[in-house]
Amino acid sequence: MPPVDPKVRAADRANAQALVDVSRETWARLGQLVSMLDRWQGTMNLVAPNTLAEVWTRHVADGAQLVALAPKDVKVWVDLGSGAGFPGLVVAALLAGKAHVHLVESNLKKAAFLRETARAMGVAVTVHAVRAEAVVGSVVPQADVVSARALASLTELLTLAAPLLKSGAIGLFPKGEKAELELTQASESWKVKTSFHPSRTDPAARIVRIEGLQELRSNA
Ligand SMILES: C[S@@+](CC[C@H](N)C(=O)[O-])C[C@H]1O[C@@H](n2cnc3c(N)ncnc32)[C@H](O)[C@@H]1O
């Protein structure tokens, strides 16, 4: 894959800057994330190669918009299936010094990328290189927010995140065009208070915000 045209990258960065209002220090941290991604993407398929030219809007700004939907006093944030750090590392950059972010990623190479990149960005995170099922509700017993992008259907996400959601965490799940359908399916098993928020980076996408999860029937 040839390197991204610097002009294309600069235009995309400017578009993201218009969407993400953060300090210069936070922007520099996000820049470290993009540099690391460029470096590691050569040897690992961290994000879909055709999204690399728009990494600032498709991945960085897309993750950053979640922070506005979180409680103001968020202290613990858990991101499931973090992949290359979206949205988890972006959130960690925006909330540095305010909240602790747990990144749960079962792929060991991606987990190594997350650790190295967090160090380069200067953000304190905990990377769990295991399946989410092994930490949610046990190693990480409580959280204020749980997020996951492109990990699973809403029904599966609610099941996975249930121990955290039932004890008061807010769920923030970026979803595509099928968000309503996924919610209808999830509502067969779960009673939830849900709100849909338009994505600022993709007109076809929505962020599903979940609170107050209750089980309707046995999900065992
Ligand atoms: C499609 S990628 C999405 C990555 C990232 N959230 C994003 O949107 O760019 C899904 C990621 O979840 C990880 N994964 C899949 N199942 C998992 C599980 N049960 N627990 C933790 N990570 C998981 C995969 O290794 C992969 O990196």
The name of the CATH topology is Rossmann fold
Name the CATH superfamily assignment. Vaccinia Virus protein VP39
Q: Specify the biggest β-sheet.
A: 7 strands, mixed
Number of strands: 7
Distance between the termini: 45 Å
Overall CATH class: Alpha Beta
Tell me the number of structural domains.
1
Count up the helices: 7
- The fraction of residues assigned to DSSP E strands is 15-25%
Average pLDDT, rounded to a whole number, is 95
Outline the low-pLDDT stretches. none
For the CA atoms, what is the radius of gyration? 17 Å
Q: Strand arrangement, largest sheet?
A: 3-2-1-4-5-7-6
Catalytic activity: guanosine(527) in 16S rRNA + S-adenosyl-L-methionine = N(7)-methylguanosine(527) in 16S rRNA + S-adenosyl-L-homocysteine
GO molecular function, one term: rRNA (guanine-N7-)-methyltransferase activity
Binding site for S-adenosyl-L-methionine: 81, 86, 132-133, 149
Family: Belongs to the methyltransferase superfamily. RNA methyltransferase RsmG family.
List keywords for this structure.
alpha/beta, Rossmann fold, rRNA processing, 38% helix, binds S-adenosylmethionine, Ribosomal RNA small subunit methyltransferase G, SAM-dependent_MTases_sf, 220 residues
Overview of the molecule:
This protein is an alpha/beta fold. It has one domain: 3-Layer(aba) Sandwich (Rossmann fold). 38% of the residues lie in helices and 19% in strands. It has helices at 6-19, 24-41, 55-64, 88-94, 108-121, 154-166, 179-186, and strands at 76-80, 100-104, 125-128, 145-147, 170-175, 190-198, 206-215. A seven-stranded mixed β-sheet has the order 3-2-1-4-5-7-6. Strand 4 (145-147), helix 6 and strand 5 form a beta-alpha-beta unit. It is globular and about 55 Å long. The N and C termini lie far apart (45 Å). It is found in: Cytoplasm. Pfam families: GidB. Belongs to the methyltransferase superfamily. RNA methyltransferase RsmG family. One of its GO terms (cellular component) is cytosol. InterPro entries: rRNA_ssu_MeTfrase_G, SAM-dependent_MTases_sf.
